[in-house]
Amino acid sequence: MIGILNAVWFLLPAAMQLTLLIVMIRRRLYRRGLFTWFFTYSLYSVLVTLPRLILLYRSHHYTTFYWITDMVYGLLALLSLNEVFGRIFFLDYEEHSWVRLVFPTVVLGIVSGLFVWWRFIQQAPSGGHFDSWSAARLAFNFGVHSIEGILMGLFLLLWWALVPGWNRYDYGVLVGFGVSAAVTMAARIARLYSGPSPVGWYKFAPGIGYVLATLIWLHAFWKAPELRVTPRLRFQEILEHAQQNNAMIRLVHQWLHRRRV
Fold first, then answer.
1. Are residues 96 and 200 in the same domain?
2. Residue 87's closest CA among 203, 165, 12?
């Protein structure tokens, strides 16, 4: 009975993610400049499910495999978020090359700060400090979830305050990652300091968070495309016209100044 429940618990989100993949393939949203990395994240989620389920009852192998695959999850999530970040701030990316460094710099800063915290400041439940591998693993994991939560809060605030024309797909990606991050972080903090013996809600919380995220993504991508972002070439034309107009205005200003003199 437990084996059947575990299989359902693993395979249900994978089936939902597979449905999302089919929707994205039909709408060709995997193409470069759209949701390439998020599509890769979803495909990876489906492919890694069966090996995790097979190794579930081999605790030592499962733990190692789980954390390695979880770090790949985190990396693909960051790339997916950076994809959305770059699309939303496309004009800033075009005008100022340094804006491209904002996202990776923030990620590096948060992960580095968390590594110092887990390695040298925070005490492990067993006493003493965490070793370097455990500190790096925790720093990366909590760092990724922190970025997911921060971006969700930031863009929800901007959407509420400015009501921009950003599309539903981008917000679905951000909100899904944010909800999953909030549930998972709460569960892992509780599990980290609850001791090894009890089996509490935190055992099932990350899976619940993942199911909620997948439901949010399915809801966002299910309807007909609503990509209201102006194509890249159109943005480039707007920038070029603006630069030409600015140059013409400067010439007129100089001519008027000479006439006045």
1. yes
2. 165
Which token pair is 201?
């809600």
Handedness of CA 222, 223, 229, 230 (dihedral sign): positive
In 3D space, the residue among 111, 100, 30 whose CA is nearest the CA of residue 74 turns out to be 111
What's the CA gap between 221 and 213, in Å, rounded? Answer: 12
The model's pTM is 0.78
Of the candidates 21, 225, 162, 66, the one whose C-alpha atom is nearest the C-alpha of residue 30 is 21
What are the pLDDT digits (tens) for 23-74?
A: 999 888 888 778 999 999 999 999 998 888 888 777 677 788 888 898 999 9
Are 152 and 61 members of one domain? yes
| Most distant pair of Cα atoms in the chain: their distance | 93
Unique residue bearing structure tokens 């970025």? 147
199 and 247, same domain (yes or no): no
Burial bucket for residue 17 (CB in 10 Å: 0-12, 13-18, 19+): buried
Asked whether the beta carbons of 91 and 131 are under 8 A apart, the reply is no
**What secondary structure letter does DSSP report for 230?**
P
Of 192, 222, 221, whose CA–CA distance to 206 is shortest?
A: 192
